[in-house]
Amino acid sequence: MTISKKQIAKKPYDLEERTFQFAKDVRMFVKTLKRTIATIEDSKQVVKASGSVGANYIEANESFSKKDFVFRAKICRKEAKESAYWLRLIKETNELLNHEEVIDLIQEATELKKIFSSMIEKTKLAK
User: Fold this and answer.
1) How far apart are the C-alpha atoms of 64 and 7, rounded to whole Å?
2) Which terminal CB of the chain, N or C, has fewer other CB atoms within 10 Å?
3) The Cα angle at residue 24 between residues 19 and 29, in degrees rounded to 5
4) pLDDT tens digits for range 25-53
5) What pLDDT score does 1 carry?
């Protein structure tokens, strides 16, 4: 499954849905990889990290305090950065038939990281 330019242009505004879609797209991408020892291990890592972005965002939305929200949002940011790392490693060490798809996923992970960074800063500044 490849992500079309139309799908990218229509990213959900709802961040819970967007993080869910990211985790789903990563899982669909991983299914297309040639099975080697390296891709199996890298795939496990990126699947865990990509799913953690959304799961921790749900936790952040249910936080009890501003401090708890910031802590959980930092975990989201960390997991988004980690997702981008594993995707980049997969991209750089494999001959991919769907090269554009992994580039799009890396871009989405980077955008999510920036969104969470912004949320963290705005929450810290809010009194």
Assistant:
1) 35
2) C
3) 125
4) 999 999 999 999 999 999 999 999 999 99
5) 47
- Chain centroid to CA 122: how far? 21
pTM: 0.88
**What secondary structure does DSSP assign to the chain, as a single string?**
----HHHHHT--SSHHHHHHHHHHHHHHHHTTS---HHHHHHHHHHHHHHHHHHHHHHHHHT-SSHHHHHHHHHHHHHHHHHHHHHHHHHHHHS--S-HHHHHHHHHHHHHHHHHHHHHHHHHHH--
> Which domains does the chain carry?
15-125 (1.20.1440.60)
The CB density around residue 37, as the number of other CB atoms within 10 Å, is: 7
**Longest Cα separation, the chain:** 51
